[in-house]
Amino acid sequence: MPRPCYNRDMRYNRKHEIIYLDERTYANDFFCLAMAGRTLPNPNYIIHHSYKDGSVWDRYNFEFVLSGKGYIETRDKTYCVGAGDLFFLNKLQQHVYYADRKEPYEKLFLVVSGSLVDSLLGAHGVTESVIVAHTDAREIFERAFDIIEQGGGALSQEAYTELNCCILRLVQRIAPPDFALSAVDVHPADLIRSYIDHNIYERFTLEELAGTVHRSVSQTERLFKAKYGTSPIRYALDKKLDAARALFQTTFLNVGEVAERLSFANVKYFSRQFKLRFGQTPSECIRLQEKDPFAGADDLRPRS
């Protein structure tokens, strides 16, 4: 059993969880530890993210299962998690997760947001809705709880730095970096593609892409097209449009919000390109999604 944390913010909630910290106490745009705590065994435990009420879950969850088991449901897949599993839930995604009826899990959790966390996950290439890794991450959570406890009524700048390090270690557990990889051995086209994939929400020019591989614009286009059969700007546009469709399918963002999130210059251009790629306008995509926002979601219940 992990050592309990006794700071003055500790409380119990209706889901049979011990909450060591929540955002009503600590929050900023750069790094926000929105919630930290421990879920005690509860056969009726169930959480919905971006579910029928129209809300959008805009935080990242890192959770570590101490004992028992539970389930995570997405539109396309069901995951079973058990003792020793670290699982990650991405923001702006639809999830339903819950404890097993007969063996309800006990778990530790950290819920975070902020531009720093966005950058950490982007740098590690994390785009999946759910990641489950069987790894011993308990010590990382307990270290975070110790920092919270030591902070008492306020977290210092040093404490925030240490919490950031805890999150970095968790990110590396779910998406281990290949430190042996040398950029010298990577084809320039692969570097450009990786840059686009990791910066899909940003606006960039062909000149900026060329600068990442220290080539001229013409060389950059030629190298990329030779390997991938399309121009880097066309590839980037298609990736943005794919991401837009995924956002329509998994969030409640409207057309303008998605266009802005993906850094399109204007909504009309975005809508025109979306229809050219998918044969339907963004509004039509949203209407179709509203007819079936989460297939089978009404039947999702904790299972025995």
Notable characteristics:
2 domains, single chain, Jelly Rolls, four-stranded antiparallel beta sheet, disordered N terminus, Arc Repressor Mutant, subunit A, alpha+beta, 304 residues, disordered C terminus, seven-stranded antiparallel beta sheet
What does this molecule look like?
The protein is an alpha+beta fold. It folds into two domains: 11-177, Sandwich (Jelly Rolls); 183-291, Homeodomain-like (Arc Repressor Mutant, subunit A). It is 39% helix and 20% strand. The chain has ten helices and eleven strands. It has helices at 115-123, 138-151, 157-174, 188-198, 206-212, 217-228, 232-250, 255-261, 267-278, 282-291, and strands at 11-12, 17-22, 32-39, 46-49, 60-67, 69-73, 78-82, 85-89, 95-99, 106-113, 130-134. The strands form two sheets. A seven-stranded antiparallel sheet has the order 1-2-3-10-5-8-11. Strands 4-9-6-7 form a four-stranded antiparallel sheet, with no helix packed on it. A hairpin with a 4-residue loop joins strand 6 and strand 7. The protein is globular, with a radius of gyration of 21 Å. It starts with 10 loop residues before the first strand and ends in a 13-residue tail after the last helix. Mean pLDDT is 82; it is low at 1-8 and 294-304.
Helices and strands in order:
Blueprint: E1 11-12, E2 17-22, E3 32-39, E4 46-49, E5 60-67, E6 69-73, E7 78-82, E8 85-89, E9 95-99, E10 106-113, H1 115-123, E11 130-134, H2 138-151, H3 157-174, H4 188-198, H5 206-212, H6 217-228, H7 232-250, H8 255-261, H9 267-278, H10 282-291
Antiparallel strand pairs: 1-2, 2-3, 3-10, 4-9, 5-8, 5-10, 6-7, 6-9, 8-11
